[in-house]
Write a structure and sequence with these properties.
The chain is mainly beta. It has one helix at about 1-15, and strands spanning about 25, 30-40, 45-50, 60-65, 70-80, 85-90, 95-100, 110-115, 120-130. The protein is globular.
């Protein structure tokens, strides 16, 4: 399974472009980021994201530094009253590869988990949306 994921990562990275803007959260192994959003109905816009503990943050993202069972786990805590969906691009900076991958929607008020291979050195999370 791991070889399949790594092969898929290598093939897809040839055609994937990196995504970056001010509404992108970049995570590296061991990072925790607290993100605050401006809420208008079900539309959200990031107003701040950083490593400083923020009790007003609606989304808390943390990524394990040490791989366990062959993967590093991304933990996403959703404090909104609606389900949170977002897009993810995993990146290998040393290999100059990137690939967009599916993410798991996070139910309102719950915590979601996604696993990534240890060769991934950076995650870019973007296009955050709420779904009732």
């Amino acid at each position: 399974m791991t070889r399949f994921l790594l092969s898929l990562f290598a093939l897809a990275s040839l055609t994937t472009l990196a995504y970056a803007d001010k509404n992108t959260v970049l995570l590296h192994p061991g990072d925790t980021v607290y993100a605050r959003f401006d809420l208008k109905g079900t539309k959200i816009k990031m107003i701040h994201a950083g490593p400083e503990k923020d009790d007003a943050a609606q989304v808390i993202l943390s990524w394990n530094k040490v791989a366990k069972d062959g993967y590093r786990t991304l933990k996403v805590e959703n404090k909104f009253n609606d389900d949170l969906v977002y897009k993810v691009e995993m990146r290998s900076l040393s290999q100059n590869h990137q690939m967009r991958v599916p993410s798991t929607p996070v139910v309102a008020g719950k915590v979601g988990f996604d696993n990534y291979p240890p060769l991934v050195e950076e995650l870019a999370l973007f296009d955050f949306k709420l779904e009732p």
